[in-house]
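Bumping my old thread because nobody answered last time. Still need a sequence for this structure:
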């Protein structure tokens, strides 16, 4: 190979590498939020903590005692903080522009025994959770079907499970954004 050909090949390689770097930088995916804490247990009113029980089992809702972390949150005014307070109302978690892959995680300061989880989809005419997964800190997973509309909860009863945290990951959704109106976790904090 002559010196002229080597120089031409080196210039072409340098140009291709430079172009690849520029394309990679320009088309790099936007940074995702790792997690957002939307509520710590001290922000929950004691009245709600003492009265929220499952009508089916009589177990206490321990979600208000958990730190609530989400993949992202649409609001900055704290409305999402009510998603795990034991009251199905306008205080909902709405993920910021996320559908599949959005998640909410409840973490307790002390071990908890969980026996039931209730999930409430947001009352939206266009946004629906079509499926998800409950994930526990021991690696156990429970598939979640399409959530019922109009404020009806989806319940799952499980044998008593000792956990430090539980997460609900949205695996399939429809609409513009997703989230939950409420998540309730029934059992006891030890």
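Sorry it took so long. Here it is:
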């Amino acid at each position: 190979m002559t010196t002229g050909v080597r120089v031409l090949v080196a210039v072409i390689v340098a140009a291709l590498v430079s172009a690849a770097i520029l394309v990679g930088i320009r088309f790099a995916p936007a940074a995702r939020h790792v997690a957002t804490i939307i509520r710590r247990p001290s922000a929950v009113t004691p009245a709600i903590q003492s009265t929220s029980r499952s009508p089916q089992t009589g177990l206490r809702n321990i979600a208000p005692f958990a730190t609530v972390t989400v993949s992202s949150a649409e609001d900055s005014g704290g409305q999402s903080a009510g998603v795990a307070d034991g009251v199905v109302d306008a205080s909902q978690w709405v993920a910021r522009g996320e559908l599949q892959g959005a998640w909410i995680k409840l973490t307790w300061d002390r071990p908890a025994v969980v026996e039931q989880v209730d999930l409430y989809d947001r009352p939206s005419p266009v946004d629906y959770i079509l499926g998800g997964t409950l994930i526990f800190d021991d690696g156990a997973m429970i598939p979640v079907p399409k959530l019922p509309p109009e404020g009806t909860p989806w319940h799952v009863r499980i044998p008593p499970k000792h956990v430090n945290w539980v997460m609900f990951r949205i695996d399939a959704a429809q609409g513009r954004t997703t989230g939950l109106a409420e998540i309730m976790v029934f059992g006891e904090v030890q």
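Residues 22-33, 45-50 have pLDDT under 50 and may be disordered. Let me know if any region looks off to you.
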